[in-house]
């Protein structure tokens, strides 16, 4: 009996464990990829909100399968930061990876950061130390722990990829004993998190209905409507049922329009109504009320019907809104009918163009230089205009340009090229004018006088002829000597300042005094790179201050020579400190200048030898990037 009880308890325990396992996430292991591959396991992770809450943690393992020997590895693992958060990373066998075995290594700390606006990364690696190598084979490298941080809404599933094959600040790679990249295949993990089922969509809203009271036509823009011409508009109703009375007020611009007549229509032939109306041209409004009485039939229509026609006279050129307000529609029971109103607009002719500005490109020039004269014109009228605009120096014509189809309120700048060849030294005044249009309201603004230009004959000119640097790269904090050469190309001695820059930041300024005609001198600036940003390539340039009336200012600036500022430990200069830099420093360990393995970039502290201090400086900066 005791044996049977034990067997029964074992069966119950197996059934309990089987039932419990149904609430675990679906995890699918990945097959081993072919040789020279790096991948993550499991291949698929499938969770749902019913069994897996926010905050749940899981691990993935990074593996490598190699057909050649190797010296170092690193991975750059990207994931969706809106779905997951990496909470840990460590070697697969504790202090080392399975790949390292018992060989000496330079262990690193994992680095975490932002890949882009939607993804974060985990960066981790390991390098052997000394003349050793890891033989071919399949190895586990590291384990990364993730935590679920976001739950999908109802009816949605969050799906994202955990990948090794996307490069960012760093990349996933394995180095052979010569520190060359081994071509790799990559495999990743698909993450899915299902939300609860979505509720059914709400029913669509009913289509809008309602009566409309509006001005017809809604807009009148007619340049021929000049005083004292007249025009008519209708106040029209549409989409109304059982209309038995209406009332409206209309406001208008009393300075532009005068209301002459209001005519009430016998809508649908109905004549049993009482019309009331009022016109006040002093205040610019009119009022209409029409009341139907028995035996009148209520008005019903789904097409526009004109209720009243209003005649206006143009009093002056301008514009006016025909503003419908305080309106009312009532049915045969005296109940108000809901409706919307739409105003009208009238614009009559105004023609006016103006020159609003005349600007020379410079206020002095040597005779023979071309000068750009910019003339701005504006259409102050209400219709599109085409016209000619001319520019002058003193009373001499520079040129004439046609402006086509300048719309109401629009501005246009036309460019004239003034050839100063043959002019004598002196001061010249610039002006512009446009032609007068028929019926133009204001001709005084057709002319604009502005801008004086001095024409010169003597030449003064200095130039920066060369900028050079002894190095095209440096670690952050080094001092670089910059040599700048300047020359006087003019006919008299000149004194001026020379300033050097890296990008737009000033390095220093040196004064040059009484440099004779044709004279040349070289200046030395010391650039302390402490204030620079590592991982940037800076343009080194110099500028001589502009002297009065300088003939050629373009040669005052000379851009030549660049210097890339590396982050400390970036031995190969690729802008990141990764396993390649650690491996390169390790390779050069114990060397001095002249030795075959000497690497100048690995001498981090510049003591002309590469020892554990240099390797430690590189390792300390592991994971640094621009």
Description:
The chain folds into 5 domains: 170 residues, Immunoglobulin-like (Sandwich), CATH 2.60.40.680; 137 residues, Immunoglobulin-like; 102 residues, Sandwich (Immunoglobulin-like), CATH 2.60.40; 105 residues, Immunoglobulins (Immunoglobulin-like), CATH 2.60.40; 42 residues, Type 1 dockerin domain (Orthogonal Bundle), CATH 1.10.1330.10. The protein has 3 helices and 42 strands. The chain is flat.
Give a quick summary of the entry.
The chain is 6% helix and 50% strand. With 626 residues, it is mostly beta strands. Strands 16, 18, 20, 21, 22, 24 and 26 form a 7-stranded mixed sheet that branches. Strands 6-10-4-2-13 form a 5-stranded mixed sheet, with no helix packed on it. Strands 5, 7, 8, 9 and 12 form a 5-stranded antiparallel sheet that branches.
The residue ranges in which pLDDT falls below 50 over 5 or more consecutive positions are: 1-24
Instruction: From the 3D structure, determine the CATH topology of the largest domain.
Output: Immunoglobulin-like
Binned, the helix content reads under 10%
Give the tally of β-strands.
42
Largest sheet: 7 strands, mixed
Please give the domain count.
Answer: 5
> What is the residue-averaged pLDDT?
89
- Terminal-residue CA separation: 74 Å
Output the structural class: mainly beta
Please state the overall shape, judged from the principal axes of the Cα atoms.
flat
**How many individual helices?**
3
CATH class of the largest domain: Mainly Beta
């Amino acid at each position: 009996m005791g044996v049977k009880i034990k067997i029964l308890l074992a069966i119950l325990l197996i059934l309990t464990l089987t039932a419990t396992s149904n609430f675990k996430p679906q995890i699918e292991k990945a097959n081993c990829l072919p040789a020279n591959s790096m991948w993550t396991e499991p291949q698929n992770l499938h969770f749902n909100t019913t069994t897996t809450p926010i905050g749940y943690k899981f691990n993935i393992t990074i593996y490598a399968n190699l057909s050649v020997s190797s010296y170092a590895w690193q991975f750059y693992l990207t994931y969706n930061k809106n779905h997951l958060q990496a909470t840990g990373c460590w070697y697969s066998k504790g202090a080392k990876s399975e790949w390292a075995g018992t060989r000496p290594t330079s262990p690193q700390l994992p680095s975490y950061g932002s890949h882009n606006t939607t993804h974060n990364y985990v960066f981790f690696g390991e390098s052997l130390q000394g003349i050793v190598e890891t033989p071919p084979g399949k190895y586990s490298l590291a384990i990364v722990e993730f935590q679920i941080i976001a739950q999908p809404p109802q009816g949605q599933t969050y799906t994202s990829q955990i990948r090794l094959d996307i490069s960012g600040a760093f990349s996933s790679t394995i180095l052979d004993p010569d520190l060359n990249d081994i071509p790799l295949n990559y495999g990743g993990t698909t993450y899915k998190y299902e939300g609860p089922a979505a509720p059914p969509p709400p029913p669509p809203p009913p289509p809008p209905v309602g009566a409309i009271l509006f001005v017809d036509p809604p807009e009148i823009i007619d340049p021929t409507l000049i005083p004292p011409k007249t025009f008519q508009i209708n106040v029209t109703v549409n989409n109304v049922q059982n209309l038995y009375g209406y009332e409206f007020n209309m406001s208008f611009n009393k300075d532009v329009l005068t209301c002459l007549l209001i005519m009430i229509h016998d809508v649908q032939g109905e004549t049993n109504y009482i019309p009331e109306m009022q016109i006040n041209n002093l205040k610019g409004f009119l009022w209409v009320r029409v009341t139907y009485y028995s035996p009148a039939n209520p008005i019903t229509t789904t097409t526009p019907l004109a209720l009243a026609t209003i005649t206006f006279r143009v009093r002056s050129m301008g514009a006016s809104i025909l503003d419908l307000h305080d309106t009312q529609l009532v049915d045969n029971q005296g109940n108000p009918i809901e409706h919307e109103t739409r105003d009208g607009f009238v614009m009559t002719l105004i023609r006016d163009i103006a020159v609003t500005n005349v600007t020379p490109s410079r206020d002095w020039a040597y005779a023979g230089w071309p000068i750009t004269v910019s003339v701005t014109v504006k259409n102050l009228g209400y219709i599109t205009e085409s016209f000619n605009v001319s520019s002058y120096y003193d009373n001499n014509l520079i040129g004439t340009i046609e402006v086509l189809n300048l719309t109401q309120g629009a501005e246009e700048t036309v460019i004239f090229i003034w050839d100063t060849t043959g002019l004598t030294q002196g001061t010249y005044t610039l002006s512009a004018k446009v032609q007068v249009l028929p019926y133009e309201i204001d001709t005084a603004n057709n002319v604009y006088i502005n801008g004086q230009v001095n024409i010169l004959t003597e030449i003064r000119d200095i130039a920066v002829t060369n900028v050079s640097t002894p190095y095209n790269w440096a670690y952050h904090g080094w001092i670089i000597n910059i040599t700048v050469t300047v020359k006087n190309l003019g006919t008299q001695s000149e004194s001026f300042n020379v300033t050097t820059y890296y990008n737009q930041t000033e390095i220093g300024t040196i004064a040059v005094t009484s440099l004779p005609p044709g004279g040349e001198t070289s200046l030395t600036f010391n650039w302390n790179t402490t204030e620079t940003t590592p991982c940037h390539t800076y343009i080194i340039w110099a500028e001589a201050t502009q002297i009065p009336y300088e003939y050629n200012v373009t040669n005052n600036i000379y851009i030549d020579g660049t210097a890339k500022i590396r982050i400390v430990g970036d031995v190969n200069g690729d802008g990141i400190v990764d396993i390649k830099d650690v491996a390169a420093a390790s390779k050069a360990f114990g060397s001095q200048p002249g030795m075959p393995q000497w690497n100048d970039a690995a001498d981090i502290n510049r003591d002309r030898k590469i020892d554990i201090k240099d390797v430690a400086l590189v390792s300390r900066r592991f994971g640094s990037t621009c």
